[in-house]
Each structure stands twice: as structure tokens, then as C-alpha cells.
């Protein structure tokens, strides 16, 4: 199937008889059309969200910015072009108000043609791709198979535990977003302000989000759906409340005096599976991700099932408007010229995460984080060469629209996308054990040719060290809090080579060994800080798909098994 030129099925062929002289001589009628009801806003800005770390103070957790163009101006241009001769007739007109309503004065026969065109445009431009997401909690140790499963096998998996279900309806070119989370405000730290003879400790509040958050862009080629997906599924563990005695030293001519006050700090731990994924879901299939952890920080086992509940298929056609001069309106869905992609960025991609894994704490900012972007594919440059073959060329989301008086259908070709068949996927399975005891496992179906990255495990806030602030006669000691990872960071990019399927794999595991301990630091003021040990395993490999597992060994008896198989 050639996907270099994919057009919408908008079949409107209006006979020239609709615009016969008798119709043109009829009395004009004024009617109002709500153009905002015909098309939906074009969302082309980037969705951006942090996938790791998740426990950051003052984090808004990703934003969805919408383009201000709601498509009303585009529809008005199409109508003005297609019905140019009628609207130029004496007494006829098209006026657009600020509310997106078009007042058109024209004969009744022209209104019938306009209504048919708007109905066809509205049905196509607003056709959503419904993606159903099921998250099922499974008992510890339950068998769960990931990959591209049949719908029947996916239903069997969903029957194995308690589940939550969501449906995202994503029209082409738009971001669909769901936030089904719970927010909790905590006192997550303290800051200190000092002056010449005084010091004050300020509580730092933090909002912790747990639950399900996801966003996607989607396109459909009839054989399946390609998703650019951000997903975060997290569970807040019981808060660890620490009682601290914060104080300062005030110096004077009579000597130094110590002042201490008792406060409490709430330290959060979040079990999470969070990342950015590029996925292709064939028709009559479901994409299944699995994740299981049994860590010092907590346990969780779930399967995450995605399926598409409607496919539009692909047809090549054009919009025709008959009249004294034949005007053509060509509308293409260019989603498959450049499908949506989830872009993952951060130090993990640059392979600098090794140092972070060994230092164990995240830094504030993006240096050791994982960021996910869902960007709209650019179309303007690809359509520039159409300028000589059409009176006007413009875009609306992923739709390319050409207005032509020549009667010849422009082609979107020249190999923007190579016809290599339907997208293929690989199934990445991983299992991490320590001295034979399972600590983390999972599976993910990944699109060949695109990178995906995610965090699996627990992120916990810890008192890392003491911060000293001094002035001329005052000194104060306060806690410095940072996030530590107890789990895995994985980056995988499947590639098709002449020898078969390869996966460029980057994996960093930092697994806490034993419970936290406290140690008092500082003099003359003292503060308890958290201490723990981690076992570390880092993998940087390019692995060939094969049935047998690859085995890697790390510190503290860690052993990793990775299996790579074609997903179908």
C-alpha cells in the first residue's frame, strides 16, 4: 500500500446543474453557519512532560498548549474559493463574525451545496481515533505476557485483576490528554533565611501527584494505528514523617547561644512506570506493557493494555465543486507522510546517566532527567513545491489543503515516505534479580526505527545533607532534600538491519539494598541525614533479536536477563 499520498475520503461531486442559470436568478436567502461546529481546533504545539524524576518541587507536570487557530478562517477561505462566482453575484456575500459564525447570502440552491460541503468536511476533519487504555493490577507473581496480543488474549489478561479503563479520542493532528490523578500537598523541606542577628526557617510545600496521566498523538493507515505516547502510572507510598530539630547559633559579646525548634518534614516515595513510547497497534490487536517491581521501596505489578476502537481506512479522492468554472478543493491527511513521534531527551540519551546512577540522587533540572515531547510533524516545507500548481496551499493540523482552478489533482509524492510495508515492532522483555530473588521485570512492544525511554521503580525523597547559612553574628543549619532512584532507567531504539532486527539498549539499574539508616552530622548544631546502599548495573549494548536471553551481571548479586523478539 503506497502511503506517500494519502487523501481523505471526502466525496463531494456537485453537478453543474446545481448552479444552473435558474438557480442563480433565484432570490438570495441569508443563513448562518457555525463553522466552529464543523472543525475542531488544530493542536500543533508541542506537548512536553517530565517522565523522570517525578518528585520535583513546584513541578506543574507537563503542559498542553493549543494553537489559537480553530480552523474557522480556513473554512471561510474554502467556501469563498469554491463558491466564488455565486458569492460575487450582486446581493450575495459571506461575512465571518468574531464568534466563528459565517453569514452567507445566496440562493437556496447554493446553500444546499454549501451544507453538503461542510457536512463532508466536518465528518472527515473531526474523525477521531479512539484509543482505549486499561490498567489492571495483578497479584504478585502472576504471569503476564506483554507484546501485541489478540483482543481475546488481552481480555483474558484484564480479567486477572482489578482494573481502571479510560478512552482517549484523538482526532488527527491533535493531542489527547488524560489526567486521572490524586494530588496531595506535603511539607517536603525547609529553607532558611539569615540576617545579621536573626534566622528563620521557611517550610517548603510540595504537591505530589499519583495516578494515571497520559497524552498521545495518533494516526491511522487502515492497517493499524501509530501512537506517540506519554504515559505515567504512579502510586504514592505511605509518607515517611521525620521529626527534626532545626536551630541556629547566635553570637554576641557574652558568647554563642544555640536556639533549637522542633519541626516535621514529610518525605514521599512514588512507585512509577513512566516514559515516552512509540507504538504501532495493528487492527484486531492490543499493545500490552507489563511492569512488576519488588523493591525495598515497595511492590507493584500491573499490565497496561492499549487498543484502538475504530479505524477509518484510507481512500484517495478529492473535493469537486461544479459551476461556471470548475474549482477543486483537495484535502489530504498527511499523517502517514510523517507520523507523530514521541521524542525522549535527557542525559540518558547522551549516555551520561552512568554518573547519576552511581551518585544515586537526581539533580534539580534536566541534567539527569527524562523529558518526553509529542510534537506535531512539520508540513509547510513539504508542501512548498505545490505553490506553482495551485492557487493556494495551506495546512490545518495534519491536513494539507490545495485550492486549484486547473482541475488537476496535485500529488504528494517524491518519496517523502518509503513504502516499506506496515510498521514492524519488537518485543523487549527484561528481568532483574538479586541473588535469585526477582526485583523488577517487564515487557514492552516497541516500534522499529523509533526510540522509547522510561523509568520503572521507585523515586524517594531523602535528606541528603545539611546546608549551613551564616551571617556576621548568626549561623543556621537546615536539611537539603533530593530524590533518589530505586529502580531502572531504560532507553531502547529498535533498528532494522540487513542481518535482522537490532536494539540499541541503554539500561541503568540502581537497586537499594537494605533499609535506610540515619546519621547525625554537623557541629555544634546537628542534623540527621539518610544513608543507604545501592547495587548498580549499567548496560550499553546493541543486541540482535533472538529467542535466547542476554545475561548481564552487576554489583551485589544483580543479574539482568534481556530477550528481544519480533512482536508478531
How much of the sequence lies in strands comes to: over 45%
The end-to-end distance, rounded to whole angstroms, is 19 Å
Query: What is the count of helical runs?
Result: 7
Shape: globular
Radius of gyration: 30 Å
In total, how many beta strands?
30
Mean pLDDT over all positions: 80
Helix content: under 10%
State the secondary-structure class. Answer: mainly beta
Query: Which residues sit in consecutive blocks of at least 5 with pLDDT less than 50?
Result: 1-24, 59-64, 313-318, 348-367, 413-420
Largest sheet: 10 strands, antiparallel
Protein architecture, described:
With 568 residues, the chain is mainly β. Helix content is 10%, strand content 56%. The chain has seven helices and 30 strands. The strands form five sheets. Strands 9, 10, 11, 12, 13, 14, 25, 26, 27 and 28 form a ten-stranded antiparallel β-sheet that branches. Strand 21 (392-396) and strand 22 form a beta hairpin. It is globular and about 100 Å long.
Short description:
By secondary structure, the chain is mainly beta.
Question: What tags apply to this protein structure?
Answer:
single chain; 10-stranded antiparallel beta sheet; 9-stranded antiparallel beta sheet; 7 helices; disordered N terminus
Secondary-structure topology with pairs:
Elements lengths: L11 E2 L7 H4 L4 E6 L12 E6 L19 H11 L1 H4 L5 E4 L4 E6 L1 H18 L2 E10 L9 E4 H8 L3 E10 L4 E19 L4 E22 L3 E13 L3 E13 L2 E13 L1 E14 L2 E11 L2 E11 L10 E3 L5 E7 L7 E6 L6 H7 L10 E6 L4 H4 L8 E5 L2 E6 L20 E10 L2 E11 L4 E19 L3 E24 L2 E22 L5 E18 L1 E8 L4 E9 L2
Parallel strand pairs: 1-17
Antiparallel strand pairs: 2-5, 3-20, 4-5, 6-8, 6-16, 7-15, 9-10, 10-11, 11-14, 12-13, 12-26, 14-25, 15-16, 15-24, 17-18, 18-22, 19-20, 21-22, 23-24, 23-30, 25-26, 26-27, 27-28, 29-30
Amino acid at each position: 500500500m503506497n502511503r506517500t499520498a494519502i487523501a481523505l475520503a471526502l466525496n463531494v461531486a456537485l453537478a453543474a446543474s446545481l448552479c444552473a442559470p435558474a438557480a442563480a436568478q433565484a432570490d438570495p436567502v441569508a443563513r448562518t453557519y457555525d463553522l466552529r461546529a464543523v472543525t475542531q481546533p488544530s493542536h500543533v504545539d508541542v506537548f512536553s512532560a517530565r517522565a523522570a524524576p517525578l518528585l520535583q518541587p513546584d513541578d506543574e507536570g507537563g503542559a498542553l498548549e493549543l494553537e489559537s487557530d480553530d480552523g474557522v478562517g480556513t473554512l471561510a477561505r474554502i467556501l469563498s474559493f469554491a463558491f466564488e462566482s455565486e458569492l460575487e453575484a450582486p446581493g450575495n456575500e459571506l461575512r465571518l463574525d468574531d464568534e466563528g459564525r459565517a453569514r452567507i447570502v445566496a440562493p437556496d440552491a447554493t446553500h444546499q451545496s454549501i451544507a453538503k460541503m461542510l457536512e463532508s468536511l466536518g465528518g472527515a476533519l473531526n474523525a477521531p481515533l479512539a484509543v482505549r487504555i486499561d490498567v489492571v493490577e495483578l497479584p504478585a507473581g502472576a504471569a503476564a505476557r506483554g507484546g501485541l496480543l489478540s483482543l481475546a488474549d488481552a481480555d483474558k489478561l484484564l480479567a486477572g485483576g482489578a482494573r481502571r479503563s479510560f478512552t482517549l479520542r484523538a482526532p488527527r493532528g491533535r493531542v489527547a490528554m488524560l489526567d486521572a490523578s490524586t494530588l496531595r500537598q506535603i511539607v517536603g523541606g525547609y529553607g532558611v533565611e539569615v540576617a545579621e542577628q536573626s534566622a528563620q526557617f521557611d517550610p517548603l510545600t510540595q504537591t505530589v501527584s499519583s495516578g494515571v496521566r497520559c497524552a498521545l498523538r495518533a494516526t491511522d493507515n487502515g492497517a493499524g494505528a501509530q501512537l506517540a505516547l506519554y504515559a505515567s502510572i504512579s502510586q504514592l507510598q505511605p509518607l515517611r514523617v521525620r521529626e527534626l530539630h532545626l536551630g541556629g547559633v547566635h553570637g554576641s559579646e557574652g558568647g554563642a547561644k544555640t536556639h533549637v525548634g522542633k519541626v516535621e518534614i514529610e518525605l514521599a516515595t512514588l512507585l512509577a512506570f513512566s516514559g515516552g513510547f512509540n507504538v504501532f497497534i495493528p487492527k484486531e490487536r492490543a499493545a500490552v506493557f507489563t511492569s512488576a517491581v519488588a523493591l525495598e521501596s515497595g511492590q507493584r505489578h500491573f499490565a497496561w493494555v492499549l487498543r484502538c476502537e475504530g479505524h477509518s481506512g484510507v481512500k484517495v479522492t478529492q473535493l469537486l465543486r461544479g459551476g461556471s468554472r470548475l474549482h477543486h478543493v483537495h484535502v489530504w491527511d498527511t499523517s502517514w507522510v510523517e507520523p507523530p513521534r514521541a521524542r525522549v531527551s535527557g542525559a540518558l540519551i547522551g549516555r551520561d546517566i552512568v554518573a547519576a546512577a552511581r551518585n544515586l540522587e537526581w539533580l534539580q533540572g534536566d541534567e539527569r532527567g527524562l523529558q518526553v515531547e509529542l510534537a506535531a510533524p512539520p508540513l509547510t516545507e513539504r508542501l512548498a513545491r505545490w505553490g506553482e500548481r495551485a492557487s493556494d496551499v495551506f495546512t490545518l493540523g495534519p491536513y494539507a489543503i490545495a485550492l486549484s482552478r486547473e482541475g488537476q489533482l496535485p500529488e504528494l509524492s517524491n518519496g517523502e515516505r518509503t513504502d516499506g510495508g506496515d510498521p514492524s515492532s519488537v518485543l523487549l522483555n527484561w528481568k532483574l534479580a538479586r541473588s535469585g530473588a526477582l526485583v523488577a521485570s517487564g515487557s514492552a512492544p516497541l516500534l522499529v526505527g523509533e526510540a522509547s525511554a522510561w523509568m520503572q521503580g521507585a523515586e524517594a525523597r531523602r535528606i541528603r545533607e545539611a546546608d549551613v547559612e551564616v551571617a556576621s553574628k548568626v549561623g543556621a543549619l537546615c536539611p537539603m532534600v533530593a530524590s533518589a532512584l530505586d529502580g531502572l532507567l531504560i532507553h531502547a531504539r529498535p533498528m532494522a538491519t540487513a542481518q535482522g532486527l537490532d536494539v540499541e539498549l541503554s539500561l541503568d539499574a540502581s537497586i537499594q539494598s537494605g533499609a535506610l539508616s540515619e546519621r547525625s552530622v554537623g557541629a555544634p548544631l546537628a542534623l540527621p541525614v539518610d544513608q543507604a546502599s545501592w547495587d548498580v548495573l549499567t548496560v550499553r549494548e546493541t543486541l540482535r533479536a533472538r529467542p535466547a536471553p542476554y545475561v548481564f551481571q552487576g554489583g551485589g548479586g544483580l543479574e539482568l536477563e534481556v530477550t528481544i523478539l519480533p512482536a508478531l
